[in-house]
Amino acid sequence: MNTRIERDFLGEREVPADAYYGVQTLRGRDNFHITGIPMSAEPCFVQAFGYVKKAAALANRDLGVLEPRVANAIAAACDRLIAGDMQDQFVTDFIQGGAGTSTNMNANEVIANLALEILGYEKGDYQHVNPNDHVNFGQSTNDVYPTAFHLALILRLGSYMEALRALQQAFHAKGIEFGQVLKMGRTHLQDAVPMSLGQEFQAWSATIGDEIQRIADTRRQLHEINLGATAIGTTVTAVPGYPQLATRYLSDLTGTNFILAPDLIEETSDTGSYVQLSGALKRTSTKLTKICNDIRLLANGPRCGLNEINLPQMQPGSSIMPGKVNPVIPEVVNQVGFLVIGLDLTVTLAASAGQLQLNVMEPVITFALFTAIATMERAVNSLRVNCVEGITANAERTRDMVLNSLGIVTLLKPSLGYKQCAEVAREGYLTGKPLHQIVVSERKLLSQEQWDEMFSFENLIAPKFEQHHD
């Protein structure tokens, strides 16, 4: 393999001749082989570094501290990252010591070597475009990394929210489809009062809609950044006016209205927005876990369970029991939910481990949040495509269960009173007699006309209060 020699203050290293990264990236890759997942696994993160470094270069050019020829070459190199190129050159592990310095230098070196090529020089000829002195001018990992992370999260959450919206719409469509399917509602896993299956699905649609709004609210908090704060928030090495100008360039380049934090020292050590986003992801995963538990309950059986709905049959369910089919899609979504809840604890602990003017644990927060978003998005898409859209209802069975249930006695309470309804329910429980037989035929507490009116489909799913006086 052809190599070139690069140097830093720790000494020399051989770098592959065709590599756009350099010696500091190589050290970072070798030091932190932890997850085996490089930052290139999240293309939005690489793209975000391209935007941030371009904004920095343009601001430094305009402020007269970076030669226009060099700044423009850096900006053109950044355009390659923004376009999605050079992904394979980002080789540092997500989890690393140094608060993300290896990742920042990975970006600096790739951009520097691209800029060198644009200007007609060889890779590694850093006297013309230097990763530290030019690409990282007026910057620190401590402001660049979190700014790029904020931007990458904003970009990444877009497709995740679209996946949630599609799931919300799928539940809504099923709510309409099942609008006339009568079923029994349950509390404590016991018969409660009637409802429609459509109402149950519409409730799931509504709760997913609420989660989309929470994510949107949380994402807006990521618009506040510390670009230009440099090492600890005092803007050391940054030219006056750079934080404001670089932030304005980043907003213009991305179409996102970024806001420079009013207290850069506070913002540089603060990880509150990550905690809030992680909490929002956990909240959604918790709700999806509940929904998937409900789906599994409603489909359980089929012959010896509730069997109210049928799930698409995705694969044979057993290596020993022929013909068995399991609810594998809700099961896998449950497991993703558990993972996200655990990742939220990781974010919480990492955020609380910050010391003084910097939280050096931000790389594991990055890994946790990107992992949570990616797995949740895939799980949400799978739940919609492989499960929800193919659900069918067993309408006759659900109606029979309602009419044979003692739970519908609750509808009689306004007219018969709690005590008499309790007696009727107790008799039905002890004798197995249908409620209609006890109320209409034997005790003659209601006429057939009153019964039919009270237990019409419309009144069962949207009861009207009617008190009868005999």
Unreliable segments of 5+ consecutive residues: none
Largest sheet: 2 strands, antiparallel
Q: Determine the strand fraction and express it as a percent band.
A: 5-15%
Through-space gap between termini: 98 Å
Radius of gyration: 31 Å
**Which structural category fits the helices and strands?**
mainly alpha
Task: Give helix % range.
Answer: 55-70%
Order of helices and strands: EEHHHHHHEEHEHEHHEHHEHHHHHH
> In terms of quaternary structure, what is this?
single chain
- Main-sheet strand order equals 1-2
Tally of DSSP helical segments: 18
Topology, number of strands = 8
Could you explain how this protein is built, in words?
With 470 residues, this protein is mainly alpha-helical. 58% of the residues lie in helices and 7% in strands. The protein contains 18 helices and eight strands. It has helices spanning 23-31, 43-62, 68-82, 101-119, 131-135, 141-177, 197-221, 242-254, 264-269, 272-298, 328-352, 362-386, 395-403, 413-416, 418-431, 435-442, 448-454, 457-461; strands at 3-8, 11-16, 182-187, 190-196, 224-225, 259-260, 309-310, 392-393. The strands form four sheets. The chain has a two-stranded antiparallel ribbon. It has a two-stranded antiparallel sheet with strand order 3-4. A two-stranded parallel ribbon has the order 5-6. Helix 2 (43-62) crosses helix 4 (101-119), helix 3 (68-82) packs across helix 4 (101-119) and helix 7 (197-221) packs antiparallel against helix 10.
